[in-house]
Amino acid sequence: MYYMSDGRAKNGGAREGAGRHVSEATIKAQLARKLIADRLEASLEPIVAKAITQALEGDFRAREWLSQNAWGKPAFNLGVGEGGESLAQVLVRFIDDKDDSNGDTD
Prior knowledge:
The protein is mostly helical. Helices cover 57% and strands 0% of the residues. It has helices at 24-56, 60-71, 87-101.
């Protein structure tokens, strides 16, 4: 615990329970988020497996969802392709072109 120069605790005062109290609505929202997170964690494996299957079948949205949840959403658009395409669009086009050159059919 950290203290100020006059001996008071930095958490809102010298007496027990001092400081801003958390509202009942905030407590309920925190409990609801925990419940959802716990239930989602228990069901996450089949959800991710389905997204991977869809991504491998060529679903762009599944690819995007997986990459954003694995590595995070890009902070900005690099604009590396023709006409200002994003890096993700260039990579998807590259993968699709590679699949076409291997004789794969969609």
